[in-house]
Structure to design on (498 residues):
């Protein structure tokens, strides 16, 4: 039996999602709690990986069990009691046996939060900029993302993916709460991509580069051309979408 | 010259507002930053004290200078650069020489946040309850607060105040964000009062006591009768009001 787990985490105290030696990761915490509950090693496969310090409002992972869980909702509750306060499971739902949290995801949405003033409460999850940003120019540049598919310029070097092609379907800055939020949706994202895009858009907002320069950076297909990667604490994996039929069990 | 300072703080890492030996407090951090900027010891007098772990979205304090600050707004910015990230000054405004942050405050508003589910992001500033609470009964009880003035039952013992009389003008639970928020406004509050009121209202919400019991607790004027004091992390000093004329400088 295969299940999807929907959960959230505050990435502050984790070296990202993916299990790695000598560092605490979210995947490791989750697998340890699963092993305690199911009494056997139970690998979980995430919808993607998040880097150190990056948060997830919604992350999805799949796992398999030998026998059906009597009550998936209760299982989520029991898992929550074992997990630390900064990881919370929302739902556990049965899916078809071939459903895959990573390969079946049709879109992912990330949000990046920035504020323009000191704020004790927002600053844990937002990046503070000094001065003013031209959000109109940043949105003009963001719209250009829809016209491209190869985002090599915004990808970490030497990753193991076969293609750097992504279809970005939404990319926009909006005033929200105490500051501005950048929301970006695509079928897939390359490693480091959102933070590199945000860093480059901020250069547009500071009038260090023009919208045309922004396009030239994408067309250059060279990571060295783009802006710096932004801090992880202000980045949230916000949602992951799947086709309905994988839930028809 | 006298000034009012408006600021916010995350109380997580502080032993409350008021200076005390062998513990870091918000007042101490603020006075240290003031001394650095003004090059002389500069006491600040707060609108009230908050206890260990309690947060302030708006706190007000007054201080005096020998000569007028050339630019109060710039002074606030410079103060912010000296203060840690969990204390943020919003405004510095001149007031009349007799204006007093504590004695002139006409009302204070506190908020208490509770949630009914595990949440990595909300839980830093909210108290989580398990089970269900009868918010209708809690609001019926909260309305009774308007009929009383002596709140000895909700006050910490052995405090140095002359009277336990307060005029509560607003007290209500409302659904907000991920959970419920209790908003309470009064001319003044006794030490520990909001957290004791919330703890007792939660006993009403759990049907451990009735609304009549709640009234009897107030009428008993005995702290031993009321519910337990709730954790500080979910309590926010939300606002402090002053008469307009103290700003006519």
């Amino acid at each position: 039996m295969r299940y999807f787990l929907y959960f959230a985490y505050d990435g502050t105290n984790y070296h990202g999602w993916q299990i790695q030696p000598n560092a605490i990761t979210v995947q490791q915490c989750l697998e340890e709690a699963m092993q305690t509950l199911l009494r056997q090693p139970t690998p979980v496969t995430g919808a993607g990986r998040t880097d150190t310090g990056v948060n997830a409002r919604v992350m999805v992972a799949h796992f398999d069990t030998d026998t059906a869980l009597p009550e998936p909702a209760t299982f989520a509750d029991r898992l929550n009691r074992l997990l630390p306060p900064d990881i919370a499971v929302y739902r556990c739902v049965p899916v078809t046996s071939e459903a895959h949290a990573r390969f079946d995801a049709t879109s992912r949405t990330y949000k990046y939060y920035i504020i323009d003033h000191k704020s004790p409460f927002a600053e844990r999850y937002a990046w503070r900029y000094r001065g003013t940003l031209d959000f109109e120019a940043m949105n003009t540049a963001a719209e250009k993302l829809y016209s491209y598919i190869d985002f090599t310029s915004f990808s970490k070097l030497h990753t193991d993916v076969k293609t750097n092609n992504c279809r970005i379907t939404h990319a926009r800055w909006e005033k929200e709460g105490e500051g501005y939020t950048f929301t970006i949706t695509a079928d897939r994202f390359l490693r480091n991509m959102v933070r590199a895009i945000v860093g480059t858009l901020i250069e547009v907002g500071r009038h260090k580069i023009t919208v045309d320069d922004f396009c030239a950076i994408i067309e250059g297909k060279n990571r060295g051309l783009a802006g710096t990667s932004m801090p992880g604490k202000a980045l949230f994996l916000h949602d992951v979408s799947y086709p309905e039929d994988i839930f028809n069990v």
About this structure: Strands of chain A lie at 2-9, 45-46, 55-64, 87-95, 107-115, 127-128, 168-176, 179-186, 235-241. The radius of gyration of chain A is 19 Å. The mean pLDDT of chain A is 94.
